[in-house]
C-alpha cells in the first residue's frame, strides 16, 4: 500500500530556553554527588528522547535506562529496544510511571548496575552508605511521576506539559536510596529534524512554537504507514481511504468523522489537529512506537 508523504517538512525546530542551559551546568556539577544516573526516555521514541549530550556529560558514571510510557508503545518494538541496550551493557526496563507498572524491577536494576561499587564499599566497611542517584530526562518524559511512585506520595509536581520541574530536588526513599531530580533538559540544536518532529509529537516541545496542523499531518502519515489498522479503527476511516492519501487529506477526513465542521461544511483542521495530537499523547490511539533500533 503506497502513501503520499508530505513534501514540506516541519519548519526547523529549535527550542533551548535559558533555564535548560543552566540545568546542563547543574547536572555536570552534581555528578560527583551521585553513584548512578537513571535516564528516563519515552518508549515510543527511544532514540529521539535520549539527550545526545548525556554520554559526554556523565562519562563513565554508571547509569540505567527506564523506557517510560511503555503502556502506550508497541510491546514488540519495546522488547527490541531492551535487547539493544543490553548489547551495550546498559540495563533497560519498560515502565509506566503513572501506573507503577515495571517499577518493581527498579531497585534490583539499580543494585545490578552498582554491583562493583557496592562490593568496593563492602570491602571498605561502607556498606551502610545510601545509594544516591540522579534522575534525568527530557521535558514531559515522566520524572515527577517516577519520583512520586518511588516515594509512595506526591512529592514532586506532575503536569503533562514540558518545563514544570525547575530546580534540583533531593528526595529520600523508604529503601534508603536518595534521588536527585533534575529539570528536563533538551539540547541546543536538533541536527536531525525528524528527532524534533518526534519530540513534538509526544509533547516534549511546547506547542506554541510549532505549526500544529503540519505536525498533525506528519503524524498521520507515519500512522497510516506503520499502524493503518489502529488509525482506521480510532477514527472510523475506511482502509481504502488511506491508499494514495496525503496527510492533509487524512486530517480532513479525521475532522469530518469527528464533526469538526465550520460553515459551508469546511473542516476545522486546526481543531482536528489539536484533538489528534491530544489523543496520541494520551495513549488512547493504541500502542504505537515511532522508532525502532
Automatic annotation (TrEMBL):
UniProt keyword annotation of NAD present: no
Keyword GTP-binding attached: yes
Main location: cytoplasm
GO cellular component, as recorded: cytoplasm
GO biological process, alphabetically ordered: translation
GO molecular function terms listed in the Swiss-Prot or TrEMBL record: GTP binding; GTPase activity
G domain segment(s): 132-193
Keywords: Cytoplasm, GTP-binding, Nucleotide-binding
Pfam family for this entry, one: MMR_HSR1
Subcellular locations according to the entry: Cytoplasm
Residue positions binding GTP: 68-71, 140-145, 184
Purpose: Required for a late step of 50S ribosomal subunit assembly. Has GTPase activity.
Family classification: Belongs to the TRAFAC class YlqF/YawG GTPase family. MTG1 subfamily.
Name assigned to this protein: Ribosome biogenesis GTPase A
Organism annotation: Harryflintia acetispora
Amino acid at each position: 500500500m503506497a502513501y503520499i508523504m508530505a513534501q514540506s517538512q516541519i519548519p526547523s525546530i529549535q527550542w533551548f530556553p535559558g533555564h535548560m542551559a543552566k540545568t546542563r551546568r547543574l547536572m555536570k556539577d552534581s555528578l560527583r554527588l551521585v553513584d548512578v544516573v537513571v535516564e528516563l526516555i519515552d518508549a515510543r521514541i527511544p532514540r529521539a528522547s535520549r539527550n545526545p549530550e548525556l554520554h559526554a556529560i556523565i562519562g563513565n558514571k554508571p547509569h540505567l535506562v527506564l523506557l517510560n510510557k511503555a503502556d502506550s508503545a508497541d510491546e514488540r518494538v519495546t522488547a527490541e529496544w531492551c535487547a539493544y541496550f543490553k548489547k551495550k551493557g546498559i540495563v533497560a526496563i519498560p515502565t509506566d510511571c503513572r501506573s507503577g507498572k515495571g517499577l518493581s524491577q527498579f531497585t534490583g536494576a539499580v543494585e545490578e548496575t552498582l554491583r562493583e561499587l557496592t562490593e568496593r564499599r563492602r570491602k571498605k566497611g561502607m556498606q551502610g552508605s545510601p545509594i544516591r542517584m540522579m534522575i534525568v530526562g527530557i521535558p514531559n518524559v515522566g520524572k515527577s511521576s517516577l519520583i512520586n511512585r518511588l516515594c509512595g506520595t506526591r512529592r514532586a509536581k506532575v503536569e503533562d506539559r514540558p518545563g514544570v520541574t525547575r530546580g534540583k530536588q533531593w528526595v529520600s526513599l523508604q529503601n534508603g536510596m536518595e534521588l536527585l531530580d533534575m529539570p528536563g533538559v533538551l539540547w541546543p540544536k536538533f541536527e536531525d529534524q525528524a528527532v524534533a518532529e518526534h519530540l513534538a509529537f509526544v509533547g516534549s516541545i511546547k506547542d506554541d512554537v510549532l505549526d500544529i496542523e503540519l505536525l498533525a499531518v506528519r503524524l498521520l502519515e507515519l500512522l497510516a504507514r506503520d499502524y493503518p489498522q489502529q488509525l482506521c479503527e480510532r477514527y472510523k476511516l475506511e482502509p481504502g481511504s488511506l491508499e494514495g492519501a496525503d496527510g492533509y487529506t487524512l486530517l480532513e477526513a479525521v475532522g469530518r468523522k469527528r464533526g469538526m465542521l465550520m460553515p459551508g461544511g469546511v473542516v476545522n483542521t486546526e481543531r482536528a489537529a489539536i484533538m489528534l495530537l491530544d489523543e496520541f499523547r494520551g495513549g488512547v490511539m493504541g500502542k504505537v512506537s515511532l522508532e525502532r533500533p
